Amino acid sequence: MKPLPASGLPESPQPQIPWLLWLDDAHDAAFNMAADQALLDRAATLPAPLLRIYRWDRPTLSFGRSQLWPVDIPDPPLRVRRPTGGGIVRHGDDLTYTVVLPAGHPLAQMEIHESYRLMHAAIGEQFGAAVHLQEERRRGGDLRRMRCFESPVRHDILGADGVKRAGAAQLRTKTGVLVQGSVRLDADAGDWIGHRDAIVRAFASFAPAGYAEWTPPSDFLEAARALANRQFASEAWNRRGEAPVAETAVDSASPGTRNSAQPAWIRVTSSAESRRHVAD
Predict the structure, then answer these.
(1) Phi/psi at 199 (nearest 5 deg)?
(2) Cα–Cα nearest to 64, from 174, 176, 165, 182
């Protein structure tokens, strides 16, 4: 067997294609989550994996898709439910990134925790000996109320003091994989630009052909804004985890017709099936 390259991925006989790199701006919470969901929905049509790095336009609390609405955290008042799992994260003093992988990519096909380890190992290398990966499995606690950076899990990035510096969550669907990650700015002296460049270098280890800058087309931005208004800015999604079904949903009682009387919402549950696809 040939040794694995530094990325931990098997070598591919197929021609290498540059990853797409979207260095995004600051947006409101609903758009940030909608853009990520829209990228996942289009993962099968992307020519290559995509790395997005973005900011928040104001302090925000995000929480996992199967969690309860946070009631014991007063600030920041703005909060949004993510499409991925994981715990409660405060945004404002962090760098957030997104990776979208087509379903056929090696990282998308390997066991979910192994892919998590490889990606965090690549990030950890950029911050040197000051950080290490959490190796122990930790059990206990109410996952519905878990605070991400107060509850390190296996393969999270910790500082020398044992404090969590970076975490991420995945959502796996038939179209591909969505990874949403957060790195605390104190992982590298509070330098946002330094963090951004470190994340770009980290994922370059999985992209032998480098990056190609990606600018979202107008139709993508329009679809993301519509999804933000329809789902990620809604009380139904954020407070109760109810996601709107596609507007073209077909009425099972009358094939070929749309059931306009049926509420266009489905409840996100923490079933065994959903847990198989959502990990932190």
Answers:
(1) -65, -40
(2) 182
Q: What is the tens place of the pLDDT at every residue in 163-187?
A: 788 889 999 999 999 999 999 887 5
DSSP string, 62-78: EE-TTSPPP-S--SS--
The Cα 156–Cα 80 span in angstroms is 22
Q: Give 129's DSSP letter.
A: G
Q: What is the pTM of this model?
A: 0.81
What CA–CA distances, in Å, run from 43 to 72, 156, 174, 193?
Answer: 36, 25, 10, 27
Q: How far apart are CA 143 and CA 146, in angstroms?
A: 5
d(CA 204, CA 57): 27
pLDDT tens per residue across span 5-31 = 445 665 554 558 999 999 999 999 999
Of the candidates 100, 148, 157, 166, the residue annotated as catalytic is 148
Strands (E) located in 197-255:
211-213, 242-244
58 belongs to the catalytic site:
no
Reported residue count of the chain is 280
Question: Distance between CA atoms of 105 and 174, rounded to whole angstroms?
Answer: 12
Q: Among 128, 139, 251, which residue's Cα sits nearest to residue 194? A: 128
- Residue of 56, 74, 64 lying closest to 167 (CA atoms): 64
| pLDDT tens per residue across span 221-280 | 999 999 999 999 999 999 999 988 754 333 333 333 333 333 344 444 433 333 344 444
∠ CA 79-42-59 to the nearest 5 degrees?
20
- Give the pair of three-digit tokens for residue 49: 């994996």
Structure tokens at 108: 């998308």
Six-digit token pair at 119? Answer: 């990606």
